[in-house]
Amino acid sequence: MAVSTEIQAPRSGRIAPEYKRHGRSKGNFEMFAWLFMRLSGVVLVVLIFGHLFVNLMVGEGVHAIDFGFVGGKWADPFWQVWDLAMLWLAMLHGTNGVRTIINDYAEKDGTRMTLKTVLYLASAVVIVLGTLVIFTFDPCPAGAAADLLPSFCRA
Amino acid sequence: MTAQNTEPVEPASKVELAPGIGGGGEIPSYDVTLRVRRYNPEVSDEGHWDEFKLTMYGTDRVLDALHKAKWEHDGSLSFRRSCAHGVCGSDAMRINGRNRLACKTLLKDLDTSKPITVEAIKGLPVEKDLIVDMEPFFQSYREIMPFLISSGHEPTRERLQSAEDRERFDDTTKCILCAACTSSCPVFWTDGQYFGPAAIVNAHRFIFDSRDDAGDMRLEILNDKEGVWRCRTTFNCTEACPRGIQVTKAIAEVKQAVLNRKI
């Protein structure tokens, strides 16, 4: 009887199924996500500390903050753009961070999908609502009851 | 038979040593408790801890303690080791919660007043005691094509390289594939899909080699969603590497290379 002299490589091709990668991902999404985290992080440091400095330190500092202070800031296109950039960058930065955490820690595909759907919905609501407020904010809406308006509207 | 075969008499030492010096004094010995994580799928699906009380010497390593436990106390204790001198990369294990080579960890450098815990490296399927299935680890290594790929004609002589070009990837040539880095990576622990630091280090070794022509292919492979972008720069890998490779730095350089190629 012929004896096989061929020696099989140990465990050749036998990889525990949970370690198998399902094909290759296409595109550069993860690369741009990574790059966005770095760049938005740097910009956010400037935006957030600028925001905190102007609101809390300049002039009367924290005591100056009231409805009128915020109304005044959003009447200025400079602060509208500043706050808009801060809102969008912070929301996308945070959403991407939580997306990463969900990808890492969700064990089932179903859990992962559900959590990410909730995350994206919540982010979209905040971004849309925030953008709307920044651009349409009117401290003295026409036709509002006089006792609901701040004092400077009567001037 | 002839005078040629007799060994010459050793010449007398030129320095007279005072008695007691250089004579190899007694090596201090002490008792250590070794707590080893045991697992035998033929007996139980659950692992358990075994304690071995051993008398060890000041020159001993964790590997010597494991040998003593296996040879004198419990022959069923299973672990991998080959060269026992920090080169083959067989005996990476989790010692006192840190990934290291048992053959490079001296007992005297650990706190011997407390039990020394020894476990299998994390993130890979345990087969028995301290032995894990390394196949997923090697699969990632194979995927990055860890061999020279050159285009054009085969040169008739050695492929020469300047000292500077060699220096570029010197650090990552030191890898011994012990898996201490990959199995210390919290991202790899989550689902085992990440290529892992070791595969990226070995890709780095060829990507930055001036003689290799397949850098683009390797960068494309590592631009995967399970590739370099899953690195969170926790530096666990750099800390775990028994060869002192700056693993996280190598990963960052590969990220940079992918970016430079795309943008």
Notes on the protein architecture:
- The complex is a heterodimer of chains A (155) and B (263).
- By secondary structure, chain A is mainly alpha-helical.
- Chain A has a domain at 33-138: Fumarate reductase/succinate dehydrogenase, transmembrane subunit (3 helical TM bundles of succinate and fumarate reductases).
- Chain A is 59% helix and 0% strand.
- Chain A contains four helices and no strands.
- Chain A has helices spanning 29-56, 67-73, 77-105, 109-136.
- The termini of chain A are far apart.
- The mean pLDDT of chain A is 88.
- With 263 residues, chain B is α+β, with helices and mostly antiparallel strands.
- Chain B folds into two domains: 29-132, Ubiquitin-like (UB roll); 135-150 and 164-262, Fumarate Reductase Iron-sulfur Protein, Chain B, domain 2 (Orthogonal Bundle), CATH 1.10.1060.
- Chain B has eight helices and seven strands.
- Chain B has helices spanning 62-73, 135-143, 163-168, 186-191, 197-207, 215-222, 236-240, 247-262; strands spanning 29-38, 48-57, 92-95, 98-101, 116-119, 126-128, 131-132.
- In chain B, the strands form two sheets. A five-stranded mixed β-sheet of chain B has the order 2-1-5-3-4, covered by helices on one side. Chain B has a two-stranded antiparallel sheet with strand order 6-7.
- In chain B, a hairpin with a 2-residue loop joins strand 6 (126-128) and strand 7.
- Chain B is globular, with a radius of gyration of 24 Å.
- The mean pLDDT of chain B is 92.
- The A-B interface holds A 11, 14-16, 18-19, 21, 24-25, 28-31, 33-35, 104-105, 107 and B 125, 133, 135-136, 139, 187, 190-193, 221, 223-227, 229-230, 255, 258-259, 262.
